[in-house]
Amino acid sequence: MATASLAPPVTRPRVLMVGTAFATAAAVMVFLGLLGVYLAERSAVVTAGDTWLPKGVTIPLDQPNIMLATLLMGCLSVQWAVFAIARDDRVNAYLALGLTLLFGFMVVVMTAYLYSLMKLDVAATPQAVLIYTITAGHIAFLLASMTYLSLMAIRALGGQFTSRQHDGISAAALTWYAQTAVFFVIWLAIYITK
Predict the structure, then answer these.
(1) Ordered domains of the chain (ranges, CATH)
(2) Would you say 20 and 173 are in contact if contact means Cβ atoms under 8 Å apart?
(3) What digits encode the pLDDT tens for the residues 105-162?
């Protein structure tokens, strides 16, 4: 007489999510280190009685505010994608992924426009080097997040993600959340405190 095994199925490891979490944590630490250098240099210059930004250089606040709002809307749309793919709603998942990528593209364009408004010569001062290094690094992080999201969208389009296994979309969403959090800190440290 054979007995049926009632053992639960073996769960597969979430390698993609764990790897993404480690890579994202490393990227966030790089930005925290860069921002630490930026704030230390700014504090030293301001404590010495000098102005941080060179004369004639202004950093407008409208564009960074719009970029922050756009990235936050991207957080909502990428969460919509995770929610939709977890319920096998492919149409809404594709729509949400496309919308998130559009938000990312809009932030890249707005950053380029902000650079043209700042008129800050990258080789002129250490302040300019730090500002461009941090903000361009964030754009690189955003583009990497958008690429990852695009690859996971292609995999979803191919049918690899379902309600039972949607960790690829969740992992890509994690990178989006992290780069948005990094931009929020950049927004406070660079654009608000100037």
Answers:
(1) 16-48+60-192 (1.20.120.80)
(2) no
(3) 999 999 999 999 998 888 888 899 999 999 999 999 999 999 999 999 999 888 888 7
Q: What is the DSSP letter of 12?
A: P
Length of the chain counted residue by residue: 194
Distances 108 to 89, 101, 161, 181 between C-alpha atoms, Å: 29, 11, 28, 16
In the chain, what is the straight-line distance between the N-terminal and C-terminal CA atoms, in Å?
78
Q: Full-prediction pTM beyond 0.85? A: yes
Q: Please say whether the beta carbons of 137 and 35 come within 8 A.
A: no
DSSP element (H, E) containing 27: helix 15-47
Are the beta carbons of 188 and 61 closer than 8 angstroms? no
Q: Using the CB atoms, write b or e for 60-83: b if 16+ within 10 Å.
A: eeebbeebbebbebbbebbbbbbe
Instruction: Provide long-range contacts, Cβ within 8 A and 24+ apart, for 18-21.
Output: 19/171, 20/148, 20/171, 20/172, 20/174, 20/175, 21/171, 21/174
Structure tokens at 41: 């240099």
Give me the numbers of helices (H) and strands (E) for the chain, helices first please. 5, 0
Q: Which residues contact 86 (CB under 8 A, 6 or more apart)?
A: 163, 166
